[in-house]
Model the fold of this input.
Amino acid sequence: MQPVKGIIFYHNKGNSMSYAETHRISYSEEKKAFIAVDKRPMKISDLEMIHDIVQKSTTRKESFSTYTEKILAVDWLSLYRGGIRKETLKMVWYTEPQAFKFFFPKGFVPGSGMYNMPYLVWHYIKGKLSVYATKEKPSLFRKTQLFHAPLLNVYEKGNVCMGSTKIELSNSQFLDEIALDITKGFFMSEFNHLHTTISMGTSYQSMYEYCQTNPFDNDHLVQINETLENLCTL
Done:
């Protein structure tokens, strides 16, 4: 294993301005050592790489489930030396297609249990949550089309009814753990209201019965007038 890239952070104590640049690391036969070359301003792709490395190299106990959150965008103004300003936090992430535990009111058929969902895109801004679905892996490098999330308690524009959703953020300084707290709060709530007239081509009951034992059928997703690109402008 050898170094390939270095990051240098600059901070001006006078006006609190910060700057980061990356350097490609190359081995110098003349100096018999690795040296930094080709400096350039830090890019979003560098931040994504750092996040992926932290995700893979840091072991943390997850109290809710084994799924992971993929951070797509975050308002870096919400981050400061003392931690994360949760009262101003704005971030976007997605969850992979997988089964989530749903809680329904007593008497709802097919009842509380595990249900397979498609890719879900989450948008959290200053205590308010929206959720959407996609048919493909979300990417900031293409205009990923968003669809109405096949979930109760979600309005037509994607915003979540917070009446039955209780989100308690931990004191974690990891963005993925904060995303986990928010996702957990949503799925721990009771799904008891249909807040949209959008038709999924079948009843919610039939759709949920199917995805209890099968992968979610993306043909039921209904396109909305929103893209991931717009969403990630925060």
Remarks:
- The first helix runs from residue 44 to 57.
